[in-house]
Amino acid sequence: MNPEEQQGAGESTEAAAGAATDVAAATGPGFKIWAVDDVVYGPVDLPTLVEWIADERVLADTWIFSEKADSWHKASALPDTKGRFQGGGSPASAPAQASPLIAGIKPGHLRRVKILSDMTDQQIGRFAQFMEVVQAAQFREIVKKGEPGDSMFLMLDGEARVRTFVGGKEKILATLRVGEFFGDMALFDHGPRAADVVANLNCTLLKISADSLMRLTTEAPELATPFLVAICRTLTSRIRADNKRFTDMIAMSAASGRGG
Question: Alpha helix (H) ranges present in 74-219?
Answer without folding.
Answer: 121-128, 184-189, 210-219
